[in-house]
Design goal:
Distance between the termini: 38 Å
Largest sheet: none
Mean pLDDT: 83
Shape: globular
Order of helices and strands: HHHH
Number of domains: 1
Number of helices: 4
Helix content: 55-70%
Structural class: mainly alpha
Oligomer: single chain
Number of strands: 0
């Protein structure tokens, strides 16, 4: 987030690294990390523009929703997704992401 305002990003077609993880972090760990990110970077995104700030808020709320979902707190996850949608309804891919996750959840049930 500190790099983006001063530099351009590029996209490469191949993966540059592969990460193997033993387990998912706890919901509390994710929420604490997101709170630190929010406290440190939110004002900067809103200084760039109101839209950039809303996108930032929406992104963190989606991450919180995912953590809640994987912890089995589906009601909390749904509330966070709605809040993310309200923060930035034009977020590309949010509706399709939700549809894919919902479809996967139904198929595994």
């Amino acid at each position: 987030m500190r790099y983006l305002p001063a530099h351009r990003l590029g996209v490469v077609p191949e993966p540059l690294t592969i990460v193997h993880k033993a387990s998912d972090p706890s919901r509390a760990q994710v929420f604490a990390a997101l709170a630190r990110i929010r406290a440190r970077h939110r004002d900067g995104w809103y200084r760039r523009s109101w839209i950039a700030g809303r996108k930032f808020d929406s992104t963190l709320l989606v991450e919180e929703a995912a953590a809640a979902h994987y912890a089995g707190a589906n009601g909390r996850a749904a509330a966070l997704v709605l809040k993310a949608f309200a923060s930035y309804p034009l977020r590309p891919g949010l509706v399709s992401l939700l549809a894919r996750r919902s479809w996967r959840q139904r198929r595994s049930s």
